Each structure stands twice: as C-alpha cells, then as structure tokens.
Amino acid sequence: MRTSLYIHFPFCLKKCLYCDFNSLAGSRITPDDYVDAVVREMELRAAGLDSPVTAATLYFGGGTPSLMEPELVELLIGTANKLYGLTDDAEVTIEANPGTLTAEKLAGYRSAGVNRLSLGVQSFDDAMLSLLGRVHTSRQVLDSFKEARAAGFTNIGIDLIHSLPGETPVDWRNELTQAVQLAPEHISAYGLTVEEGTPFHRMEREGRLHLPDEEVGAAMFRETGEFLEWAGYEHYEISNFALPGFRSRHNQVYWRRGNCLGFGAGAHSFLRAPAFGSRWRNALSPESYLRAVASSTLPEEELTFLTERDAMAEFFFLGLRMLDGVEPAEFRREFGCTVADAYPGEVERLAAEGLIECHGGFLRLSRRGVCLANQVFMRFI
User: Fold this and answer.
1) What is the pTM of this model?
2) Sign of the C-alpha dihedral, residues 241, 2, 307, 282?
3) Least CB-packed of 45, 136, 227, 368 within 10 Å?
4) Are 264 and 289 in contact (CB under 8 A)?
C-alpha cells in the first residue's frame, strides 16, 4: 500500500493567540517520553496492517516539532523507514519556529534525514509578531533562513498570514516583497481566520480586535497571487505557491485523497479502504494518548466510514483546491458514474456563473472561482 506519514508534536513554548491547532504550552510530558509513545504507536499500527506499506512522504507537524532534538527526529525517521518503508526519494518535512532553531539543530535535522523545512514566519513585522503571540523576531527569521541554507537545506517553505489586525494592502505588499527576497522554494500565504475558542475570538467579541474588512482582505488575496506569480512562483493551490518542481508532495496527498497515516496526539488519518474510505483522529490530550499507547491500545477516536456521497463531495472540495483541478474521467473510474449523473447541471451552472472552467480535460476553478472557492465547494456537499 502506498501511503504518506504524519507525526504530530503538540508542544509549544507559547500558544499563539490565533491558534486552534491541537497544541499546548507548559506540559510536564518530556519530548523523550512522548517520542517513545509515538514509536510504540507506529509499531502497533504496523502490526495491524494487512499488507506491506511504502511511504513517499513524512511530515512532522505541530505544535512546534523543532522543539525536538535531532536525535529524537532521527529515531522517528528510522522507525518510519523500518516499519513503513520510506522511499529513497521520500520528502521528509519538519515544521520549525525560528525562535527554537540554532545552526547546530538545523545541521542535526539535515543529518537525520530531513530534506524539507517549513518555517513558520507568519510576518516580518516585529509588532505584528508580538500581536500574534509568536516567540520569534524578524531578525531570527532571517538568521534561521540563512542557517538553514548553510546546513544544506535546498527546499525551504515559509508560512505567511495576511488580513492581520490593522494590516493594509501596502503592509502586505511589503511582506510579500521581503518573502521573495529570501527566495524560498515554497510560500504558503493564508488569510487570518478567527477560530472559536481562541484568544483572538474573545478579543473580537469584546471589540478589541480590529481586522481589515472583507473587501480589503479579498484585495490582499488577489495581490498574493499576482505578486508571487510575477516573482516566478506557481500558484498551485488556493493558498500555496512554489517554484517549479517544489510543490509540497505531502500536502498534495491530502488534496488528492491519498492514504495518510497519522501518529501522535490529535493526528488525523485517512485510508481509501474499506469501501469509500475511512477517517479517524487520535486522542487529543497527550496524557490520554500516552495512556492508550502504554496499554498497547491504538489511540484512535472518531472513526468514520465514508459513504459514496461523502467521497464524491471530498473529490471536489479537496481536489478543486488544486488549481490543476479534477479530472472527470477519474471521477467516473472511482465512482462508476459521470459528474453529470452525480450532480445534474451543477458544473454547467458553476461555469455560467464564471466560477469553474474546463481546461485540458480537467475541471478547475476560474480566477473568480479561486476567490470564491468556499461557495463552489458548498455546491458539492
């Protein structure tokens, strides 16, 4: 079975004010104990698989995976290779916060087998970084990037957030300019979403968070695509841009509904079997996760078996995130019916509204559709 692997490290030095990921600061669980539990989970899962596995990508996400020492990362990569057969050209990514990196740690990650770095920049403005609750400065971003290059990383991605409190289109253009000057191979640029339960959500309710209005946010989104395409980046997914040959292989697995096994507290998994696929999530609490694994029990929760209709909807609302689009012939091979059979008249209506177009045998979002993607996706749910 061909799959991808994801390892979740939920610990942070400090919880960012906008973050609703499964992460926490101040845990008494040590990285060593946590990694031992992840290794045990990987062993338990491998023992229960019906067929051998080959993995083409491995992704360390969080949280702040760069709080792990290189020796722990090397242990996890070695375990993944032994149990799940990493391919010779496997893409191995670690998310890293500039405030947790040193030249020695970066060299250690590279030596351990990490070949792709995802740097959580978010902003080059120190005042904005402080407002977001980040633990690094813009100077640390530049230093970490330079040190990563010196350590031998030739595939570096950076994350940026636009539509931040008080941000203007001119501010955002300056952020993009600084990003391009670094010349990373990949840029992820997301609009800020205020999630329920976060400090930002509370601040917004209390009138203490002043965000750009929807029209300004849309202008920043459009500016992102235009500026980065001008700078030579391929706009290959709604919020993701890459130099030629540097698309994130791991993330494309998600958008194309490929198999992915997730390990660690809160990690999500998807298999295309049985029937139309199954999804599950591990226990969110690191303590609950460690207890389950210690008793030789897989920590999975919220196991869902997809219906045919679920899988059809995912085919579109995940696949259309890719600007290449989706292939109707593939839909027919997978589901035994045409798109017109499953969604009578929908493609024609979306095309008439200028939201979707046909190109080279694929259905894809139009430029207008990219800006209104959520409206398109809802038509298939």
Assistant:
1) 0.96
2) negative
3) 368
4) yes
Task: Please write the tens of the pLDDT for every residue from 337-353.
Answer: 999 999 999 999 999 99
Judge whether 306 and 314 are in contact, CB under 8 Å. yes
DSSP 42-83: HHHHHHH-SS--EEEEEEEEES-GGGS-HHHHHHHHHHHHHH
Partners of 116 in the β-ladder = 93
Range of the domain at 11: 2-254
The answer as to whether 276 is a domain residue is no
| Same domain? 217 vs 355 | no
Predicted confidence (pLDDT) per residue in 161-205, tens digit: 999 999 999 999 999 999 999 999 999 999 999 999 999 999 999
**Co-location of 119 and 23 in the same domain:** yes
For 25, phi then psi, to 5°, come to -115, 150
Residue 49 lies in a domain: yes
Count of domains for the chain: 2
Amino acid at 210: H
Element (H, E) at 255: helix 249-255
Which residues partner with 335 through β-bridges?
none
d(CA 137, CA 114): 24
**Cβ 164 vs Cβ 131: under 8 Å:** yes
Query: Rounded to 5 degrees, what angle do the CA atoms 62, 65, 71 make?
Result: 150
Which CATH number do you get for residue 345? 1.10.10
As given in the structure block, the two tokens for residue 230 are 């001008």
The rounded distance, in Å, linking the Cα atoms of 13 and 25 is: 5
